[in-house]
Design goal:
The protein has about 240 residues and is an alpha/beta fold. The protein has one domain: LigB-like (Protocatechuate 4,5-dioxygenase, Chain B), CATH 3.40.830. Helices cover about 35% and strands about 20% of the residues. It contains eight helices and nine strands. β4 and β5 form a beta hairpin. The radius of gyration is 16 Å and the shape is globular.
């Protein structure tokens, strides 16, 4: 059962080496993410599942120890999901094969930066095109049985259309969409997240829609309360941080 959740944005710019000279511009977002992770730790989960958006070919589970990198952004920074050594926490050899999608690589960096050690970590990537109904069912599955304490770290950006220089250019609908999401995350409003318009989210390039609806499916029976910790749109992209407990 879900006992806590943290919602964080997933731009590679959160990683200082990627942001380079602009790293300080997201100091506030990083600090809010650290606060959200502390809420997760305080819930003493038995398992942490990181959920993030990905291409269809990347969707599915990623076990502890899966590697990721930011080489596509010109940085030789490698990360691993939930472990620092050559084996995972119970001694199995690290998995080989596909790398973490970018959203989960950013999450892996955040967890390492925050020195997460509270619970074992695993990842689950959801396709940006996944229907709302499938997202909700996926979330219910990830939450596990009532006697298991599960926390979610949910990665995803709001719209990318908040300014003329935004990746998706300016769309007048973007600010109201982001405000709707911010209200839902701040209030832990499961129904509002489930009701997000998937087509509109895609038009606004809101990568967080599917992960947020996975959260809604996981949290439906949990009756958590929410706290919005960060709401800004640097570079014309909506970045939101929230904690549910």
């Amino acid at each position: 059962m879900l006992v806590a959740a943290a919602v964080c944005p997933c731009p590679p710019l959160l990683v200082p080496e990627v942001a380079a000279g602009a790293a300080s511009e997201l100091d506030g977002a990083r600090a809010a993410c650290a606060d959200a992770l502390r809420v997760l730790a305080a819930a003493h989960p038995g398992r942490l599942v990181v959920v993030g958006p990905a291409e269809e070919s990347e969707q599915g589970p990623y076990p502890a120890g899966t590697r990721g990198s930011f080489r596509g952004f010109g940085v030789e920074t490698d990360v691993r999901l939930g472990t620092d050594g050559g084996t995972d926490p119970v001694g199995r050899a690290l998995p080989v094969g596909r790398e973490l999608p970018v959203s989960l690589a950013v999450a892996a960096w955040l967890l390492d930066w925050a020195r997460w050690s509270e619970a074992p970590v695993e990842g689950f990537a959801v396709a940006e095109s996944l229907t709302s109904e499938r997202c909700v069912r996926t979330g219910a599955d990830l939450a596990g049985p009532p006697d298991e304490r599960v926390a979610l770290l949910v990665m995803g950006d709001a719209s990318a259309c908040r300014s003329l220089k935004a990746p998706g250019y300016l769309d007048q609908r973007a600010a109201s969409f982001d405000a709707q999401v911010a209200r839902a995350l701040g209030a832990a409003d499961v129904a509002a997240l489930k009701a997000l318009d998937a087509d509109l989210a895609q038009e606004l390039k809101a990568l967080g829609r599917a992960p947020w609806q996975v959260l809604a499916g996981a949290a439906e029976p949990a009756r958590l309360t929410g706290d919005l910790l960060y709401d800004d749109a640097p570079y014309g992209v909506g970045y939101l941080v929230a904690a549910w407990a």
